[in-house]
Amino acid sequence: MMNDVADSTDVAGTVALVTGGSRGIGAAIARKLASHGAAVALTYVQAAEQAKEVVAQIEAGGGRAIAIQADLTLPDAAVQAVEQTVRDLGGLDILVNNAGFLTYGPLDEVTETELDRVLAVDVRSVFLASQAAARHMREGGRVISIGSCFNGHVPAENFVLQAMAKSALVGLTKGLARELGSRGITATVVDPGPIDTDMNPEDGDSADFQRSLTALGRYGAAEDIANAVAYLAGPGGRYITGTALAVDGGYTV
């Protein structure tokens, strides 16, 4: 699998699972991987119609896709999503841990319930999905987690929970790289900067501030993150592991 680097993003014949793939960055990743030849499973919590639309778009382009309802705050949901992907699509080669919350607010206002929810989805489900996926992956497998520019730079107050949760992915990824490297499986993180999605629109209340923190002075698009994931998932990423790739417009410069 993935021995020819002539096309750095060719993932034909592989199976991918994208968590949180019904909208925004996750949907862009699912469509991108499918356009490069992967069969794709994507998870959603409540956005069933949006998930069905992404599946329909992939199928209209000649690809193969399924949508899986998975509430990743539940301990067994990530594992069940992996197992359903393997069962319905015939294996698993690429795991993209994309699901997560965009959380901000003063430290004193973070509740225990909010803390538990963020850690359950942004950290615990990533670990459990990666653990389950590794049992099925062959040589050339990929574990790619979507982090945050807060992994390298926290520019203001109110982001302590987000920074903590996303930074945990860096340590997890380094551990996975060592654990799985002998099997030819890579593990990486993609750290987006400000990306125009419904969760963080480029015309939102804090958009001007976020733009001012980037070297390019603008928001990125979900497609920018999808392109980076496609590269890491394909032959181009075969010698990249245990590291984070910033796709942030110079946010952390």
TrEMBL record:
GO molecular-function terms, A-Z: oxidoreductase activity
Cross-referenced Pfam families: adh_short_C2
SMART domains: PKS_KR
Sorted UniProt keywords: Oxidoreductase
Segments forming domain Ketoreductase: 14-198
Family: Belongs to the short-chain dehydrogenases/reductases (SDR) family.
PANTHER family linked to this entry: OXIDOREDUCTASE, SHORT-CHAIN DEHYDROGENASE/REDUCTASE FAMILY (AFU_ORTHOLOGUE AFUA_5G02870) (PTHR43639), SHORT-CHAIN DEHYDROGENASE_REDUCTASE FAMILY PROTEIN (PTHR43639:SF1)
Protein name in UniProt: Short-chain dehydrogenase/reductase SDR
Originating species: Catenulispora acidiphila (strain DSM 44928 / JCM 14897 / NBRC 102108 / NRRL B-24433 / ID139908)
